[in-house]
């Protein structure tokens, strides 16, 4: 491959996002059955899980594209140890869900590592060589080894998809931004139970000259390789 074939230039907001794909990772946040499928944690919180299903096909296209270009791929799962030792009571007790974290639901114990509902959905299953991160918080960097993994591989730029836009995706992007990564969020590959929160998040990421990062369409990424 020539030097230029690693270059990616994406028409984005608030301006052109440029990276070298050898130093870039795709990060797919929490594309888990617990959030996306009926009967999961998302629904127990009173949400319409079908809102998130809209991101699945675009995220699958983005994943195929990243793999085709030999990019590092990171998959995260919001999950807790079976004894819930990494789940603060404040998180477990919040709100009025019909099932709390650790309770038995239709897909096993809610948000517990290794349970069927905690798995990444079939359409986006990780393959050998890809990084899988179990994270107890909303952000992918809190209490995980993600930063070290990325540093060891000299990753400087991150392309994000996943759910939910305004919670775990945005938190992870803010954490990444504070650690010095340039971050791009692909609009169709992310979703929220609340479409207006997704829209607001896209706007706040790119505001003020890209205070958190960049946003773009899926098409812009797929066309971006020079
Ligand atoms: C939430 C997430 N919304 N992955 N988790 O609790 O955004």
From TrEMBL:
<dbReference type="GO" id="GO:0016787">
    <property type="term" value="F:hydrolase activity"/>
</dbReference>
<dbReference type="InterPro" id="IPR036380">
    <property type="entry name" value="Isochorismatase-like_sf"/>
</dbReference>
<feature type="domain" description="Isochorismatase-like">
    <location>
        <begin position="24"/>
        <end position="212"/>
    </location>
</feature>
<dbReference type="InterPro" id="IPR050272">
    <property type="entry name" value="Isochorismatase-like_hydrls"/>
</dbReference>
<dbReference type="Pfam" id="PF00857">
    <property type="entry name" value="Isochorismatase"/>
</dbReference>
<dbReference type="InterPro" id="IPR000868">
    <property type="entry name" value="Isochorismatase-like_dom"/>
</dbReference>
<protein>
    <submittedName>
        <fullName>Putative Isochorismatase hydrolase</fullName>
    </submittedName>
</protein>
<keyword id="KW-0378">Hydrolase</keyword>
